[in-house]
Amino acid sequence: MEDSRLNNYVITIARGFGSGGRTIAGMLGDRLGIPSYEHRILAMASRMTGRDEDEFEEVDERLRGKSLADRLRSLQKRLSPHAELNRFTSDDRLYEAEANIIRELGKSENCIIVGKAADYVLKDQDNVLSVYIEAPRDFCRKMVMDRMNIGPEEADRLITSTDRYRADYYQYYSRGNYWTNPVNYDITLNSERFGLEKCVDMIINALQIKFDGRFHVNIAR
After folding, report:
1. Using CA atoms, how far apart are residues 93 and 102, in angstroms rounded to an integer?
2. Rounded CA separation 25/112 (Å)
3. Selection from 191, 186, 45, 25 nearest residue 112 by Cα
4. DSSP 172-198
5. What are the chain's domains?
6. Which of 7, 45, 52, 162 could in theory staple to 84 by disulfide, Cβ–Cβ 3.0 to 4.6 A?
7. Chain segment 69-88, per-residue pLDDT in tens
8. Tens of pLDDT, residues 30-41
9. Distances (CA, A) of 6 to 186, 210, 216, 217
């Protein structure tokens, strides 16, 4: 009988700024014992696109499987929240480098990918659980104030600016879809109502339900 298990699974997490989505991704990675990627994908893609065309393609060809995972994990992980203050401007070459990295991760290892329109990039793969996390403005404002040590007006400005950037980024690269569309995702969660820990529990439950034994999932308690 053919083994119905897939080689690896990927969890993509889209999130509103201040919803705690990145924190949830980190907690989820700790529970599952798998890496969570966000800034490091951008950092690697930026290095690749800084090269001339021939060297860029050569590097891209070498970044496969274990080599890619090792290179990503060697890069510094961003610990503090990062707001987008500028309006979105397209950079197709950078996006394609990021998308190539995401596709390779999507077929090579168990991992979590935060942002980068990863749900769209991996929409044709059957080993992906896609999640969107949002929360009311009051919750997001307090989260941003506490984590960035800023006042409420500045927090509101950063939330508005960053969410607008993410929405424009997603719409441009998905060719017209919109970022908060619930049908883009397997599940959407309100992090204020459930709390961060319960969101982690629900994502793990959804992972097990969706794939129904096709993966061996190690869960730390």
Report:
1. 14
2. 7
3. 25
4. HHTTS--TT-GGGSSEEEEHHHH-HHH
5. 10-211 (3.40.50.300)
6. 162
7. 666 666 556 666 677 777 77
8. 999 999 888 778
9. 18, 12, 10, 12
Q: In what order do the strands lie in the sheet with 36-37?
A: 36-37, 111-114, 10-15, 128-134, 187-190
Neighbours of 220 (CB within 10 A): 7
Q: At what angle do helices 53-62 and 92-106 cross, to 10 degrees?
A: 10
What is the Cα–Cα distance from 51 to 47, expressed in whole angstroms? 7
Give the model's pLDDT for residue 2: 40
Residue 164's pLDDT is what?
94
What single string gives the DSSP state of each residue in 39-90?
Answer: HHHHHHHHHHHTS-HHHHHHHHHH--HHHHHHHHHHSPPP-S-----SPP--
Count of beta carbons in the 10 Å neighbourhood of residue 70: 10
Cβ contact 129:203 at 8 Å: yes
- Separation of alpha carbons 46 and 210, rounded Å: 34
The predicted model scores a pTM of 0.85
Q: Which two tokens stand for residue 127?
A: 């080993």
Euclidean distance between CA atoms 16 and 164, whole angstroms:
10
> Side-chain half-sphere of 148: how many Cα atoms within 13 Å?
22
